[in-house]
TrEMBL record:
Annotated function: Catalyzes the dehydration of the S-form of NAD(P)HX at the expense of ADP, which is converted to AMP. Together with NAD(P)HX epimerase, which catalyzes the epimerization of the S- and R-forms, the enzyme allows the repair of both epimers of NAD(P)HX, a damaged form of NAD(P)H that is a result of enzymatic or heat-dependent hydration. Bifunctional enzyme that catalyzes the epimerization of the S- and R-forms of NAD(P)HX and the dehydration of the S-form of NAD(P)HX at the expense of ADP, which is converted to AMP. This allows the repair of both epimers of NAD(P)HX, a damaged form of NAD(P)H that is a result of enzymatic or heat-dependent hydration.
Domain of life the protein comes from: Archaea
Chain residues that bind AMP: 426
Cofactor(s) required for function per UniProt: Mg(2+); K(+)
Catalytic activity as recorded in UniProt: (6S)-NADPHX + ADP = AMP + phosphate + NADPH + H(+); (6R)-NADPHX = (6S)-NADPHX; (6S)-NADHX + ADP = AMP + phosphate + NADH + H(+); (6R)-NADHX = (6S)-NADHX
Amino-acid positions noted as binding K(+) in the UniProt annotation, renumbered to this chain: 75, 149, 190
NCBIfam families named in the record: yjeF_cterm (TIGR00196), yjeF_nterm (TIGR00197)
Family, per entry: In the N-terminal section; belongs to the NnrE/AIBP family. Belongs to the NnrE/AIBP family.
Span of domain YjeF C-terminal: 227-484
UniProt protein name: Bifunctional NAD(P)H-hydrate repair enzyme
């Protein structure tokens, strides 16, 4: 079974989420763009859905005034598109036109302005409290009306601020006195607006109420499965006022008298993302580490064995994430170390790669959710993952297509090319994942690690053909992060 077949099996085994968070929706939105589905297309479909629901109210109420309250974000953009589908309505922009946030919302507002000169769509730009109260008083004196709440959607953060606060309070008062004032909320009710209907797009959001009506707007299910720049945009952002060590501390435990390169590649890759990276290894490896940016912990012996567990459990406490396995070697000594260390490391974030994967005793092994495994095909088969009892740990099955999964999620990454078969790219991948995992959750870190590693390889393929080296890939990591971060 190749990776693509495994992916398809997993999409059937892992139940698709029918309620998602605004953050998950934002990742899907951005990955739609990555897949070539433009936001303006989605906004058009969203606006059409809203107009259809307003027309249902018109069947009940007859030809009544329609007021569309729009914010300056894409929720407002949906309102603009809905206005065009409806015609004969009043669009109230709660804010200055120049503050309309996005291209797609601005384009829809521009169209309305072109129409408003001649047609039956009126536009009011209101920014002052008295202008807003005047419109609300007009609505209060009507027998019947339809209100569209396109003020705030999934972009809402924290307590409702003015002018939305006044509008919501006043509309709730009006609604209480006259049930023939019907309110439809776009995607999400703004604050505690008492809407008759909420039309939410693609999937119900965790911030929706039970009665939300879900409408498809052309987002294919693949947009939830393919890793794109939407995942990268969801990564935690560096706080500009942060101090050294606050952007991730990674400890690489690997290497042996036979292999010194692997843990160094892992550490150098992690260092492009985290701001404090150390390598714990045997003396033959430590003496080869000349990079002053890397901290080292020297361990006794030719291999990291059981005798190192206590010291490494102690050292691990200073780090956010451990990357375990690169170049460890595969013998009884390293086997005893890896199994003992993982048993005692508790819920510390650990990326487990290469030789560590090969020496774990999987019989009765606890696949904890704080573990990320990064096997290639053979290592994956050795792990013997039971597809009917998927693990809490996140598994990254590397290949032409990387498949990233755990018991609740599955995604596939298509960046990368056969130039990456060169030795060391696996060490780099788990270094990138370790750097991300220090400050992000496991599944997102694993997906983004695969995307970044592969995308760096794709950029190098364009620049150098297939003959790029692991160090070239490491040097490309910041470029990829800057492109999409
Ligand atoms: N999911 C989809 O496929 C589509 C979603 N669409 C619509 O887009 C909105 C989300 O748009 P966004 O611009 O991200 O955010 P909002 O419009 O919700 O808010 C924007 C704006 O509001 C300000 N703001 C945030 N919090 C507050 C607050 N507490 N008080 C006052 N103001 C606040 C802030 O400045 C934000 O920038 C989604 O809901 C859908 O309606 C697409 O159009 C179609 C596809
Ligand atoms: K809304």
């Amino acid at each position: 079974m190749d990776n693509l077949e495994l992916f398809k099996i997993l999409t059937k085994k892992i139940k698709e989420k029918d309620i998602i968070s605004p953050k998950e929706m934002e990742i899907i939105d951005n990955n739609c763009e990555y897949l070539g589905i433009s936001r303006i297309l989605l906004m058009e479909n969203a606006g059409k859905c809203v107009a259809e629901e307003v027309n249902k109210f018109k069947v009940e109420l007859g030809e009544v005034p329609i007021f569309i309250f729009c914010g300056t974000g894409n929720n407002g953009g949906d309102g603009f598109a809905a206005a065009r589908h409806l015609g004969n309505c009043s669009v109230i922009l709660l804010g200055k036109e120049e503050n309309i946030k996005t291209y797609e919302a601005r384009e829809n507002f521009k169209i309305l302005k072109n129409l408003a000169e001649f047609g039956d769509i009126s536009i009011k730009n209101v920014t002052h409290q008295n202008e807003i109260l005047e419109i609300l008083n007009e609505i209060e004196n009507l027998d019947k009306a339809i209100i569209v709440d396109a003020m705030l959607g999934t972009g809402i953060r924290g307590e409702l601020r003015e002018p939305y606060k006044t509008v919501v309070e006043k509309l709730n008062e009006i609604k209480k006195k006259n049930d023939n004032i019907k309110i439809i909320s776009v995607d999400v009710e703004t604050g505690d607006l008492n809407a008759d209907k909420v039309i939410t797009f693609h999937k119900r959001k965790t911030i929706n109420k039970e009665n939300a009506i879900v409408k498809p707007i052309g987002i294919p299910k693949e947009a939830e499965y393919i890793v794109g720049w939407g995942d990268l945009k969801a990564l935690s952002k560096r706080d500009p006022n942060s101090h050294k060590g606050e952007n991730g501390k990674v400890l690489v435990i690997g290497g042996s008298k036979e292999f010194f390169g692997a843990p160094i590649l892992t550490a150098l890759a992690a260092l492009k993302i985290a701001d404090l990276v150390a390598v714990a290894s045997v003396k033959d490896v430590v003496k080869k580490i000349t990079n002053p940016e890397l901290i080292t912990y020297k361990l006794k012996g030719d291999y990291i064995g059981e005798k190192c567990i206590d010291k490494l459990i102690e050292i691990s406490k200073k780090f956010d994430c451990i990357v375990l396995g690169n170049g460890l070697g595969v013998n009884e000594e390293t086997k005893a170390f890896v199994n003992g260390f993982l048993e005692r490391i508790g819920n510390k974030k650990v990326v487990i790669d290469a030789d560590a994967i090969k020496v774990i005793e999987y019989e009765g092994f606890e696949f904890r959710e704080n573990f990320i495994f990064t096997p290639h095909r053979r290592e994956f088969e050795y792990m013997g993952i039971n597809l009917d009892n998927l693990p809490s740990s996140t598994i990254v099955l590397k290949g032409r297509y990387d498949v990233i999964f755990n018991k609740n999620n599955v995604k596939i990454n298509k960046t990368g090319n056969s130039g990456m078969t060169v030795g060391g790219t696996g060490d780099i991948l788990c270094g990138i994942i370790g750097g991300l995992y220090a400050k992000n959750e496991a599944f997102l870190s694993a997906c983004c690690g695969c995307f970044i590693n592969g995308y760096a390889g794709d950029l190098l393929l364009k620049e150098k053909g297939y003959y790029y080296t692991p160090i070239d890939i490491i040097e490309k990591i910041p470029h990829v992060l800057k492109l999409f971060g």
